[in-house]
Amino acid sequence: MSYRRFIPGIIGALLLFACSGKEREFTWDEQTAALTGKNVKQWLRTAPFSNELAQTDANRMVFTNADEVFPFKGKYNNTVDELPASYTENSPVYQEETVLYQDPKWGDLFVTAALLYEDEEVFLRDSYSETGNPMFGGSNAVLSSYHASLEETAVKAGHKRYKTALYWAHTSGKSYLLGFYQGGKLLFEVAVPLQDRDTLGALNKLKEVNTKMKLDIPEWEQAAVTDLVRTGTEETFWKNPFRGIYLSPKTAMEEVELKLKDTPLKASEGAFDGDYSFEYKSSEGKVVLYTVRKDTDKEETVFNEERKDQSGYTYGLTKVFYKEKQERDQVKGVAVTYLKNHQYLELHYTYPATDEKARSVVHGVLKYIRIFKF
Predict the structure, then answer these.
(1) Which PROSITE patterns does the entry link to (predicted)?
(2) What confidence category does residue 18 fall into, taking pLDDT thresholds of 50, 70 and 90?
(3) Which one of 3.30.70.3090, 3.40.50.10540, 3.30.1120.10, 3.40.1000.10 gives the CATH number of domain 242-371?
(4) Which is higher by pLDDT, 239 or 24?
(5) What count of other Cβ atoms lies within 10 Å of the Cβ of residue 340?
């Protein structure tokens, strides 16, 4: 891992001030409070490693290239998308802490933890990518990328109180035994380097972490070397719920993605309205959603401003506006969202007026629409 870079304290103070204004209140659950002593950073330092790489220095902030060395560090997804960092607006993450070590025996490694405002299940992905850090590689660093892949082992469990799994993480020619744990609002990871193919040594160190940090995860304690064979499965990884539509002839990539894969909506068969159509039959009737791409002479800011009083959703930079009304036993609606280059997307939908589940399905699609504008 590269050595640290510093910036003057006044910048550090400004950055810390800008990121500290949290209005949402965090509530400790009894288990997490007892485990961490309500001091996550100090709890992480109880890990059985030495030679911590300090991330603060007097009145200066310290930058490391840890995200390049460990592209998989502290990256979590809920059922929809990657969790944004704790300092971003409306983030579901209350706090994130990482302790980096350059251990004399084990080398570069990390322990990291996060606290969520709510107890929602999170997932790891099977692959990660990070761009280079200009603080280390100069202005051309952003042209570089660093990749990591994860593989499942037989050690994985989901319980009412917690979930856990052990993975093999691979990046830049190195492998790590990655332990992941979620207990309610607490997320925890440790990466133990695999040295000289000594799987037993890495496993024993992971078990020491389990004991010293008082995690007491039964699956870690009971794991054997034979349990760490790569299974080739993808049972615990995040499942992407988005389906792409409108293939770009320039990039050969879809310009729009709809959150359809985790819904009963399937591509319509036979003749249908619109460019793309999806439907299913509920116990109360037919549910249909179809899309049409249209031209507009309005810029995006004007387009959105004209609809600011309508009902709608915001997902990232995407704003969706909709109107709907009941006609007899059906609800009919039209939603719009700006695409790019003076084009917008219309989403037409119908569902039985008494079918609350169908409404939830349709509005779940409207709420999460990805638009690729570049």
Answers:
(1) PROKAR_LIPOPROTEIN
(2) very low
(3) 3.40.1000.10
(4) 239
(5) 12
